[in-house]
Inverse folding.
């Protein structure tokens, strides 16, 4: 028998196919439709030799391989490699590849390499662990430098850290393998906390994109090559074997996107958002002009591009079977951007093309053969992820150093010419491109105004939302910014957005509604979405409806089915701590309090460092069981294990505030703020300022609020707190703050109230 995480051996797969053929021959006279099955893809090459040859040796085929002499590229000759916290030794043992490395308790273990992940520019290794788990080790092999390196070097990752290779964050069963294998199923058993994961084959094969092919093989056997089957356009597949251009980007996005799963794998023929929830262009993931910031892969940046709007798809630039570019150098771009202004496919809208020689110094202003003469270096600047993996931005922006300096985003010119003073570089750029203007209709400027709380911020959002050429993913992003600028006009925008044809916009609108709508407005706007055809939309609506009082939901006949679907999705993801946490919150909201504590315990069993569950567990002890001291103890114990986690200190401070102990609450809240870096500290600053003010330390509170408002002028909560605190003793300052709010959003309810 194969191991729980092993693919089905070819012999077993073939025997199953034979038995299935026999049963199908008996059933062929039945009216029942047999669903397609997965097959051994070696059968594909007899008819599809060219595509199969392209696929051989590709990154897709070799995305995951059993550890063997030919597949393991790293040096396992016995050398020891030290990171900033741990030492690991890479060696051979009776033919096996073994990593001697600190385990979950910090003590050395000998972990066997079961599979390789990737081939270039780095290769990772999956180690076998009890319970069917495959864990990705933090040391990777640099295939270019021929050297080991740690993916989290100088980040203090040891056995107590969530990023350690033994932790749930590095569990490949639910974090990685789905995009590295064909027909992967996690097969997680929550009762035993074990995986029995299976896949048809390691690596990304034909059926990963085209779907299970048993019906296609039957069709091919029954259809002479000279007589095409006019009655079966799908050729035996569940959907058309030729992936339509309207579907292709979503097919690729199953893996080439930053997204969250909604089930155990995906179903061919489903919309992307039936199986996944892709990220929008949020400030933590993308720059203000839409270029990539965090590790987001290609989908999000490409969906906002003018290329995508014109009908360009992935396979216009990449051979879908080999993954290689269609042409070398600038040739892949000049397929469409050429002297004839003719796109490579008739379906691509070429109205925006200009007839010119783009592969010329007259255009790129750099010597031919230099880095600056390459289209990708100017229009697809790259970023390094996983230390050495350079990935190019797919939003296809144009350089604009003046805008980049103004709005604080990256720029190809500034990135390449770092030795030139920025002002001089801008002057040179404008001299060479005197007509250079932003090509995004002012999206970057307006988004920067909205996120920066500048005068006209709300109008900037409305201006961009009014465009009829705005890519849906940008509409969703704009909609997600509306809660910072509440108004009747904003609510009307959301009411339209929940009916937008793109599901990503509908989801963003659903998530933004609670900040602007009353409970009854929220119910009435969300009720029709109970029948939405896309699962991600229904789930978003279910969660918002779950938080309404039961009496407000009364009469909503679709609610039980919505709640059941939301709950089922969480139960499909029980290997994840956040799924148990989501269930705990749903149980609390739906008067099933007896299930809350067990769900929180399950969350922490999956991930002992999942801080939201720790905090809710402490609050549950305090508020449901009326055991405030027990809640404090849980938080203090968690802080002892994770002294640098700001959310724990913040939760402790809030618990002490609720118990009337401001003296002890203030140091905890101050420590949380000190540990929280970046723009995420706004709520922490507000809470600490209120606590300081209530304890009589008014001047400290005012300074803290003023500092945070200066850092984030769009923070309405901080602004209104300052307005309130200054209204008596410094009315002029208070009025000035309100005038700034009026300039940002003249229809803000607080401004309207003053009128």
């Amino acid at each position: 028998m194969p191991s729980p995480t092993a693919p089905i051996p070819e012999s077993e797969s073939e025997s199953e196919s034979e038995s299935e053929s026999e049963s199908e021959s008996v059933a062929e006279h039945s009216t029942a439709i047999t669903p397609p099955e997965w097959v051994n893809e070696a059968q594909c090459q007899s008819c599809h030799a060219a595509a199969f040859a392209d696929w051989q040796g590709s990154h897709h085929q070799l995305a995951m391989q059993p550890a063997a002499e030919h597949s393991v590229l790293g040096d396992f000759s016995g050398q020891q490699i030290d990171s900033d916290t741990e030492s690991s030794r890479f060696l051979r043992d009776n033919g096996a590849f073994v990593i001697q490395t600190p385990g979950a308790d910090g003590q050395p273990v000998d972990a066997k390499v079961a599979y390789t992940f990737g081939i270039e520019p780095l290769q990772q290794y999956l180690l076998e662990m009890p319970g069917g788990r495959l864990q990705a080790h933090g040391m990777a092999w640099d295939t270019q430098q021929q050297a080991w390196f740690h993916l989290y070097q100088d980040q203090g990752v040891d056995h107590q850290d969530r990023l350690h290779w033994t932790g749930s964050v590095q569990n490949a069963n639910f974090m990685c393998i789905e995009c590295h294998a064909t027909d992967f199923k996690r097969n997680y058993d929550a009762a035993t906390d074990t995986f029995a994961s299976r896949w048809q084959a390691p690596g990304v094969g034909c059926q990963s994109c085209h779907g299970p092919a048993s019906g296609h093989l039957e069709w091919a056997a029954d259809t002479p090559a000279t007589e095409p089957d006019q009655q079966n356009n799908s050729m035996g597949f569940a959907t058309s074997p030729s992936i339509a251009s309207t579907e292709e980007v979503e097919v690729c996005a199953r893996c080439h996107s930053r997204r969250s799963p909604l089930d155990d794998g995906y179903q061919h023929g489903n919309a992307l958002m039936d199986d996944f929830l892709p990220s929008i262009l949020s400030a933590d993931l993308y720059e203000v002009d839409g270029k990539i910031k965090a590790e987001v892969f290609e989908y999000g940046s490409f969906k906002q591009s003018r290329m995508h709007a014109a009908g360009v798809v992935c396979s216009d630039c990449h051979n879908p079977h080999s993954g290689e570019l269609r042409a070398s150098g600038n040739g892949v771009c000049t397929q469409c951007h050429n002297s004839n202004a003719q796109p490579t496919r008739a379906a691509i809208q070429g109205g925006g093309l200009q007839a010119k020689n783009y592969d010329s110094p007259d255009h790129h202003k750099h010597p031919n053969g230099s880095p600056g003469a390459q289209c990708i270096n100017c229009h697809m600047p790259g970023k390094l992820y996983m230390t050495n993996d350079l990935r190019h931005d797919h939003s296809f922006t144009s350089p604009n150093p003046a805008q980049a300096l103004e709005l604080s985003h990256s720029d190809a010119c500034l990135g390449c010419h770092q030795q030139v003073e920025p002002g001089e570089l801008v002057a040179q750029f404008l001299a060479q491109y005197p007509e250079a203007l932003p090509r995004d209709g002012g999206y970057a400027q307006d988004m920067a105004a909205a996120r920066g709380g500048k005068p006209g911020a709300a109008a900037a959002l409305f201006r961009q939302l009014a465009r009829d050429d705005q890519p849906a993913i940008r509409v969703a992003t704009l909609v997600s910014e509306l809660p910072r600028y509440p108004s009747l006009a904003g609510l009307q925008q959301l009411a339209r957005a929940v009916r937008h044809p793109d599901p990503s916009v509908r989801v963003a609108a659903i998530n933004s509604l609670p900040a602007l709508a009353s409970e009854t407005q929220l119910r009435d706007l969300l009720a029709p979405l109970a029948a939405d055809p896309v699962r991600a939309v229904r789930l978003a609506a279910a969660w918002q409806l779950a938080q309404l009082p039961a009496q407000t939901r009364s009469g909503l006949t679709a609610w039980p089915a919505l709640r059941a679907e939301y709950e089922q999705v969480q139960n499909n993801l029980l290997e994840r701590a956040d799924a148990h946490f989501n269930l705990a919150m749903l149980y609390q909201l739906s008067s099933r309090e007896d299930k809350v504590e067990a769900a929180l315990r399950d969350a922490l069993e999956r991930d002992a460092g999942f801080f939201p569950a720790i905090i809710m567990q402490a609050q549950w002890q305090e508020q449901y069981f009326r055991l405030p001291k027990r809640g404090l103890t849980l938080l203090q114990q968690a802080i002892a294990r994770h002294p640098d986690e700001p959310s724990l200190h913040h939760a402790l401070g809030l618990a002490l505030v609720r118990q009337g102990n401001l003296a002890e609450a203030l140091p905890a809240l101050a420590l949380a703020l000190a540990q929280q870096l970046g723009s995420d500290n706004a709520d922490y600053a507000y809470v600490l300022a209120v606590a300081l003010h209530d304890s009589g330390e008014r001047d400290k509170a005012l300074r803290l609020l003023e500092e945070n408002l200066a850092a984030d002028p769009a923070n309405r909560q901080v602004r209104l707190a300052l307005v309130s605190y200054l209204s008596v003793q410094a009315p002029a300052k208070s009025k000035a703050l309100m005038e700034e709010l009026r300039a940002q959003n003249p229809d803000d309810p607080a401004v309207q109230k003053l009128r």
Q: What stands out?
A: Confidence is low (pLDDT under 50) at residues 1-32. The longest strand covers residues 108-117.
